Amino acid sequence: MKIKFKINGMHCKGCANHIKLTMEEHGFTDVWIDRELNAGVASIAGDKIADAEIALDRAFAEMPGYSISDLMEDFI
After folding, report:
1. Would you say 2 and 52 are in contact if contact means Cβ atoms under 8 Å apart?
2. Count of domains in the chain?
């Protein structure tokens, strides 16, 4: 299953890379973050939204001003 979400506050590729690496460290695969940083759209392959929220909270702990919205499962 894909989990899609929007990252609010993203403004640099270094931060996008930090989020990607954190998600991979937490066992998520197919981590994708839109190269258009202002869009902040991302998706990951995983089983549980709650696990994704925990991993994202850890990534954002070092990144003030970042948050997620529109978190949803896509069963395609």
Report:
1. no
2. 1
